[in-house]
Amino acid sequence: MEKRVVFRSGWLPWVLIAPQALVILVFFFLPAGQMLVQSVQQSNAFGTSVEYVGLDNFRNLWNDASYLESFYTTAIFSTLVAVLGIGISLLLAVFADRIVRGALIYKTLLIWPYAVAPAVAGVLWLFMFAPSVGVVTYWLGVLGVNWNHLLNGPQAMALVIMAAVWKQISYNFLFFLAGLQSIPKSLIEAAAIDGAGPWRRFRTIVFPLLSPTTFFLLVINIVYAFFDTFGIIDAVTQGGPGKATSILVYKLYYDGFKAMDLGGSAAQSAVLMVIVVALTVVQFRFVEKKVNY
Amino acid sequence: MVERRPLLAVLSHVVLILGVLVVAFPLYMTFVASTQTVDEIIHPPMTLWPGSHLIENYTAAWNGTGGGNGSKAPVGQMMVVSLITALVISLGKIAISLLSAFAIVYFRFRFRMVVFWGIFITLMLPVEVRILPTYQVVSDLGMLNSYAGLTIPLIASATATFLFRQFFLTVPDELVEAARMDGAGPLRFFKDVLVPLSSTSIAALFVIQFIYGWNQYLWPLLVTTNEDMYPVVIGIKRMISGGDAQTAWNVVMATALMAMIPPAVVVMLMQKWFVKGLVDTEK
């Protein structure tokens, strides 16, 4: 779409664009270019010499068991965060949609976690599950469960997933609620007149009509689990115990800033970039087509 | 509601109340912990009722005089850093996106589409992906431990630019023609017609971007090493150190609560714009 009527000026548009262009060039394109260059270079331990090594960094990643393990960890983490987050919010949204009185109160009480920083959400959950002082840890102990996420990998994973899902429920809930409210009431009424009960209506009408929303949220939640949960991981487990919760972004941060492996972390960045591009393309293709049944 | 099913109505309320309770429980425990002494917390089980040390814990956190082994940066000062950072990021994003969307929509110039796609591509380069080289650039420019370093690298926004572009495309051409007839130049038209028309979009974006700025974690973690430049989200993390027993959990929790209040208030008070902002920025 284009404007029919435009202003004429040779220099003004460039002045208007300059601030954004400057920020993008200096802080986006320049670093991204450097990253691509570094990903095919190897510097020695003192940073005094740099040599071109082709795709060696990528080959090393591929042969690095801990990197593949981090991929596996990320896959489990993001799948569980997305599926649990979407499932719980769908349940809440479907019931909230049925309620006539007090709906706004429930909505307000459910959306505030969106405002909580991931790192702060992590601290909240860390406190409840802290091995020696946590309230939930104590209750679990009474029930005979020995909770110590500092030693037990699966428990650490469960804890970061709980914190990540808790923070994302509000977002999913709002989108599901909007999706539910846009389903024509006449469809639901027609099905009710034909004798379909609430469960049957949900299964055969509501859920299929929500599928665009669900698919959209799936992509958004995977992006969230991949990138925005860094704060949760860093606050709760620092990737541990061992490497049990070291997702790709955390490993990239660790290798780049703690282990100072420039070439390796640049190669990791490049791999992550490919993942972002793929996810963005999926998201935009979907938005253009507006999948509907 | 298409039919009367009292049982289902009751079930709806039960499920939602359970949901609200589970969502609110961590917040409640945070509040309870922030009203106790350290001794009361480290001897489990901690009570589920608020204690009597609310004022002293919050004062200790605000002034940075809490116990524990971690960082003791005063929360009052960290909140100021967070507030400035969040405001500069949100208002900066809105300002530069308005300007570039105006240029892209209302002018014809060479490389217009190149500029457009250049902005679009930044969507695919989140900070998390290019942290190390971006850190090097910021460090070379001497912007570590400064507001410029905390905010400017996060200020470019493809989503905001698109949002305004979409909106400008729906503004009737007659308005431009009328403005021209009245002798208004492009900047006058921008200031007196376009910006006022965009006020709802601006409010919606502001809510989303303010929260985004306030909640930044990875980037401030890298560029701030001085305690007096810590945003509050970083400060909380640095207050937890050593084992459970060495952390002044009461002060940490008081800090966490204070860190949550500004963005939560923005979301709850501006709920309408918040929802609009969420929906608009993702489409």
How many helical elements of chain A?
12
Which term fits the overall shape of chain A?
A: globular
Radius of gyration of chain A, Cα only, in angstroms? Answer: 24 Å
How much helical structure, as a percent, in the residues of chain B? 55-70%
**What share of the residues of chain B does DSSP label as strand, in percent?**
under 5%
**Pair of chains with the largest interface and how many residues each contributes:** A-B, 101 and 106 residues
What is the SS-derived class of chain A?
mainly alpha
Which spans of chain A of ≥5 residues are poorly predicted at pLDDT below 50? none
Report how far apart the termini of chain A are: 27 Å
- How many helices of chain B? The count is 15
> How would you characterize the largest beta sheet of chain B?
none
Q: Structural class from helices and strands of chain B?
A: mainly alpha
Assembly of the depicted chains: heterodimer
Cα shape of chain B: globular
Cα separation of the termini of chain B: 29 Å
Spatial strand order of the main sheet of chain A: 1-2
Q: Would you write up a description of this structure?
A:
The complex is a heterodimer of chains A (293) and B (283). Chain A has 293 residues and is an all-alpha fold. Chain A is built from twelve helices and two strands. In chain A, strands 1-2 form a two-stranded antiparallel ribbon. In chain A, a hairpin with a 6-residue loop joins β1 and β2 (50-52). With 283 residues, chain B is mostly helical. Chain B contains 15 helices and no strands. Chain B has helices at 6-33, 38-42, 54-63, 75-106, 112-121, 131-140, 147-151, 158-169, 173-181, 186-197, 199-214, 218-223, 232-239, 249-269, 271-282. Chain B is globular. The mean pLDDT of chain B is 84. The chains are: A mainly alpha (293), B mainly alpha (283). At the A-B interface, α1, α3, α4, α5 and α6 of A face α1, α4, α5, α6 and α9 of B.
What descriptors fit this protein?
heterodimer, A: mainly alpha, two-stranded antiparallel sheet, 12 helices
